[in-house]
């Protein structure tokens, strides 16, 4: 595979490859596609809660496995009884935050950077993090023909999904730890940081217009299938290998008006995570069925099998790691003075966990009062 891709690279000059990438980014860039409203797979059944409907948004991405499986298997709808679950999928955090702000989505699954950005830019007025969903599943995958060690990354072109997103912040922080510098706005410096939609990145890697990418699953395993090699699993940089990659957030208005619905959704996500942990093969298949329904095609078995084990579902939002990620973004100049006090309200989740006989999870001192 590497030899095939190297031959392709030699056949395409940079003058051709980079305009192709730019055109693809224009067509498929983050936020360029409208959100997709799903049809309810399971009908409401039983007593209605305080709202007739709850609108939940998430990404068609393996790091959102809790939502993929919970919706696909009807595990969240079951806890809602007669309240209908209306699901919407997004391609990027900013559009999901906009939907929360506009009131078109009530509860969302978001990465840490959009969660922090949405909270700080509204001066703490629009959302709360109410639970965790996933940890891990992020890797630096490189072309082994040109990058064999971390030192070889200097002078190369490395893609991230979007300026200021969670992986972009992590890469820029890592670059700084190597003693190198990069301008966070332009991406230019000792490493060229190329902001590229995850749908575009595999093609850019195949043609050689990028030399690697710091990306979540399944994009990382797609690059491996194209001949890339994992240079670094981001989990290795964190204590105990755990760091938040997906949060569950809610609009503050919906939380205030419909706490019973919020608690029911969280009960559904907790039970979904239990089911995923106890039925890993069935859960993997369910997630892929959901991806096929949402995108029109499933992930190839080789990609799915490689990607799935590195993603760990979790009810714990791992609040201490979000604080660290926000500090990295501020240090990089991508976030101004992150004031995170009150970003969490874990009381509904801890009520659910207590009913299940489980210990409470913490908010790292950043909880609403």
UniProtKB/TrEMBL annotation:
<protein>
    <submittedName>
        <fullName>Aliphatic sulfonate ABC transporter substrate-binding protein</fullName>
    </submittedName>
</protein>
<keyword id="KW-1003">Cell membrane</keyword>
<keyword id="KW-0732">Signal</keyword>
<keyword id="KW-0997">Cell inner membrane</keyword>
<keyword id="KW-0813">Transport</keyword>
<dbReference type="Pfam" id="PF13379">
    <property type="entry name" value="NMT1_2"/>
</dbReference>
<dbReference type="InterPro" id="IPR010067">
    <property type="entry name" value="ABC_SsuA_sub-bd"/>
</dbReference>
<feature type="signal peptide">
    <location>
        <begin position="1"/>
        <end position="29"/>
    </location>
</feature>
<comment type="similarity">
    <text>Belongs to the bacterial solute-binding protein SsuA/TauA family.</text>
</comment>
<dbReference type="InterPro" id="IPR044527">
    <property type="entry name" value="NrtA/CpmA_ABC-bd_dom"/>
</dbReference>
<keyword id="KW-0472">Membrane</keyword>
